[in-house]
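# step 3/5: fold
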Amino acid sequence: MEKLKTFFRDLGIALLIVVIFSLGIFIGSKYMTQNVTADSSDTVVNSTVLPSTFSTIAKVTLPAVVNIITEKTVVLSAPFMIPDPFRQFFAPMPEEKAKRTGMGSGFFISEDGYILTNNHVVSDADKITVTLQDGSKYTGKDVKVVGTDPRTDLALLKINKKKKFKYLKLGNSDSISVGDWAVAEGNPFGLKGTLTLGVISGKGRENLNINKGPVYQDFLQTDASINPGNSGGPLLNIKGEVVGINSAILSTSGGNIGIGFAVPINMAKNIVAQLKKNGKIERGYIGIYPQNLTDELAKAFNLDNTNGVLVRDIIKNSPAERAGLKSGDIIITFDGKDIKDANQFSMLVAATHIGKKVPVLIIRNGDRKTITVKIGKLNEKTTLSSANKKDTDKIFKYWGIKYVDAGSEIAKNMGIKTDKGVVIANVRQYSNAYYAGLKNGDLIVAVDNHPIDNSQILDTILLKNINGNRPLAFKVKRQEMVIFTAFKAEK
């Protein structure tokens, strides 16, 4: 009898161990794996992948990633620094044209052939060729540029073929956190179908000095390897959903050093919707020049911190002026959202529907006050200078240059990050300015040691010296390099 009791006791213990072990396997399989969800015509919907392997993500998502090759015709010419007395002995250098190729990536966002990529990948291209992972190519009339948006560095393409394409599911970039897995895909250096792995290193990166970079910056930062050719490719989360569009790197060598940036997909969603509908972007506008608050300004205004933006100036006849905003006001909330800095404020205004009446909480003379502003439409076509057309034409005729204020929309689209100075938008070929070495995108900061804060100051100086007999000394900033050059008005 005693042996029988021992047998049943041991059997009960064994059964209990089996039950606990089975329950552990069930719980582990349910909660310790991740679903990969990328929409395509043959998506593996319910497949799972452990953090130790990313092969399923690669298998499901890479077929939706494309290689983009562009061709553009460029004019080759070299302005020589030829002194005035000898220039008459030199014939103008003939223009030579050459084809320049570029490469990048993109990805399908719908089965009917819409492709999301970077604006800088396809801007000014004469020819675009899209190559899929299976080797099929589309070019010419088969590839349509639906629309571009330089301000966010995004572009939307469309393959004009009646075919169902494999595409990626768009995720939620707001929900991703620093430390989360990040998977970058694309065609670095033309190597198709490349996947690299890292994490989200940071969020909300802004004010980056990126060549041809966007005006509106709210980048995701990642250490997933991004190199030339990756631009326009997707940045994915652990589920295979797109959380960003790979756009830029910071590098001392031109290659990856673990600091890459992607446009958040939530920013892109609104851009894509507008480009699909209208082929262009319409942005909100109120007409102020915002300025970040420094510690000194915050103390001067008796503020506890530097959150908010200072209204530096008001544009005449703008929605802001009509609503009663004034220079010196400090905006602390816009449409119920707390304002952190000028970059965030500008993006909030731009993303607001035109015609909407928005409450703006300000501090004026120490008192809080709410002002309602009716959002206007941003005019993307900023006039070249504050001078009238007659004076602008006169300056171009005698001095050979056209220019815009550094704080203008045109200047921002050219990658200018300051609002002080004047940016050259056009240099007439074979003019004195041309031979003096001035180029489009140069920032004029001084003339004859006189600071040039805006185009009005430069207009006055150039118009006054049209009949002068001596050259003017121009101090120019070209990227990080300061250049001095001198020339006089043409007769």
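# step 4/5: annotate
The radius of gyration is 29 Å.
# step 5/5: archive (pending)
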